Amino acid sequence: MTAEVLKLRPKDLARCAELEQQLFPGDDPWSQDAFAAELAQGHYYVGAYEDELLVGYAGLAVLARPPRAEVEVHTIGVDPAHQGRGIGTALLRALLVRADAYAATTFLEVRTDNEPAIALYRAHGFDVVGVRKRYYQPSGADAFTMRRPARIAEDAG
Q: Which residues form the N-acetyltransferase domain (predicted)?
């Protein structure tokens, strides 16, 4: 992977929305305003950059702080032209470093038919804990809810 993972820049929110249109055309892709709202709420977002071009993004929300910390992965997206090169892995790892700093249990939803993403999440300690029927709209696709147990940062390596 040659992309550099950094804190998401507000100037790249239009690019995030553009990628959403490519990645999630059958559902309800996030708008630039939706990404701006996520940042305004203080959620943690990172971007993967190649030569200043945003090629991926990921976001994490803190739902509860210690002693029973919980976080939720809100989104991970990688430009289709850059998939299969480890960018999604790098983005997920950046989010998990943040989760581990809180010693937080991490949750996410993923389409039940998204086998590459499910494999990525399993490889990073997530297990399926439930199914949300018709979670994605308007397609009506189902989602798995996945959970990764809390880890302390020193044990995360």
A: 3-151
Strands 4-7 and 127-132: unpaired
Structural contact between residues 71 and 104, judged by C-beta atoms closer than 8 angstroms: yes
Structural domain of 148: 4-155
Cα distances (angstroms) measured from residue 88 to each of 78, 79, 85, 132: 6, 10, 8, 23
- 58-113 pLDDT, tens digit per residue, is 999 999 988 899 999 999 999 999 999 999 999 999 999 999 999 999 999 999 99
Q: For residue 155, is pLDDT > 80? A: no
CATH of residue 87's domain is 3.40.630.30
Number of domains in the chain: 1
